[in-house]
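Hi Y.,

Following your request, here is the sequence exactly as I used it, all 250 residues.
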Amino acid sequence: MTEVRGHEVLFHLSADDVAEALSTRLSARLAELQRDFQTPQLCLTGGRIATRAYQRLAEDGHRSAVDWSRVDLWWGDERFVPADDEDRNDKQALDLLRPALGLAPERIHRMPASDEGLDLDAAAEAYARELGSTPFDICLLGMGPDGHVASIFPEHPSGYATGTVIAVRSSPKPPPLRTSLTLASINTSREVWFCVSGEDKAAALTMTLLGAGPVQLPAAGVAGTQRTLWLVDKAAASQLPADLIPPGLR
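Below is the corresponding structure, written out as C-alpha cells. Let me know if you'd prefer a different format.
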C-alpha cells in the first residue's frame, strides 16, 4: 500500500485483480461491521469493475460471511430512464445480487426511475428525503477518464451543487438526465473506496492524487471522513511517479 496525501492506494496487475480485491475487501469489511452489531450502509456504484465485483459477491452466495439481509444498499447516481432499462446502475447490480444474497427489499434504496410518476427534480428530492442524514459506512465510486465521479462532471453545474441529491441535466455522458449525490453528500461517508482501471484513467488518476482542483476533476474533491481507499490497476497507475508504484508493477 502507498499513501498519497492521506489517501491509501493499493496497486493491482489487472482490472480483474481490482474486482477480486474489491469483492474480498468489501465482504470482510461488511462482516466486520456486522460483528460490531451495526447495520452497514453501503453506497454502490456502476461500471465495469463494480459489476465484476458484484458477480464475485453473488458467486459467494450463502458461503458469504456477510448477512446481506442486514445491509442497506444505496446508489451514488442513476440514469433517469425506465426501471427495467439496462443502463440503470441499480438493475445491473440487483440482477446479480438479489437472486444470490437474500437481500431485504426494505433495505434496497433505489433512486426513482423515469417511469415511476416523478419528474427529474421530484425524483432527486424524493431520494434526498429517503437518504436524510444517513452517512454511508462505505461509498464505492468509479472515476471517468475526465475525473468525474457519480454524475458530477468537470466544469459542469453538477460540480457546484449543494444539498445531498441533485437533478443532473445535459450530462456530458449519455443519457443526459440523471440523479446524483453531491460531492458534499459523498464526503459524509466514513469510507470512500475508488475502483479504477484502464490506461484511459491514468491522467485523471495522477492529477487527482497529486492535487488537482475539484472543479476541474471532481474526484479530487472526494474524501471519506475516516478513510479514502484507491484500488487501481497497473494501466491506470501508468502515469504516476515511479517512486509511488511498487517495484513489481512499474
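The first helix runs from residue 15 to 35.

Thanks again,
Q.
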